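This section describes the prediction task in plain terms. A model, or a person checking by hand, is given the sequence of a single protein chain and must write out its three-dimensional structure as a string of tokens. No templates, partner chains or ligands are provided. The sample shown here is typical of the held-out split.
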Amino acid sequence: MEDYNKIIESLGVKFIKARNIRILQPIVIKNFYDVENTLLILYNGEVSYGDEHQKVEIGDMLFIPGGKHVTVTYGEPSNPKPVTNEEFMTHREHYFEANRDPTRIGNMPNSFGYVSFEAKVFDSVNFFNSLDVPPFIIKHDETLAQAIRQILIEDMTDIAGKGRVIKIKTEEIVIEVIRYILKQRLFVEQLVTNSTYFKDPRLIDIFAYIKDNIGGDLSNKVLANVANVSEDYVGQYFKMLTGINPQDYIEYQRMEAAVGLLRTSKKSIRAIGAEVGYKDTAYFCRRFKMMFGIPAGKMRRRESLMNV
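The expected answer:
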């Protein structure tokens, strides 16, 4: 248990957004993808996930780790409209209506609430993504349900301390999800593996260097110097501890940084690509769409419609 506590203590948790949504028409998104973790609670109607349309019962929660492609069906699954992730992200207002009235939370037909958040080890590694786990359902959990509800209420109002309350409640959600994983003995082996490699100082140095130099030279030769191992060994060493090779990890970090810049800045796509390490804008755009299923420009438009 001590190792799990160390993992939790190392996590940097960041609230991204919360919404209470009414489903306007049944849709199925075959390749839904987001960089953040999402915890969804179903208040009324139907939501299912996976190719077998595994049903989320009313009051249950669906946890989707960031960085995972998944099929999600909103509304009656018998004849939903097929929608690509790109179409959904670009025209979300056609399918969802956001509620901004706290008194209506849980009282609308065909509705759900959700909270999206980051949970990073040493502010570098996406924790739930590193477990390499699929989405899963959390059965009725009153603590989580109340935390989501309070975040939704705080986010809809303009009162003193709302940011602090949301931060505390988001951290509570992360802890409760980890506790659920441990209690149900889901993915415990991956958690144990994480607790081992997150304590390796050479790997921590590599994570920190990548974060601080995301737009620079991150070749295996450079990483080998950071970790004080040979260039021939650094790729094997990194993959042995994390399960992925360093260049795949670096690309994910660069794309995640690009999403952050699209969300928070007005820089051009060319400038953003260059800032996260891509000298060739066309190549950056191809890789971005391959990873997220949506062009960078449309991702920016999606972020401008975040209130929907």
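For orientation: The longest strand covers residues 11-23.
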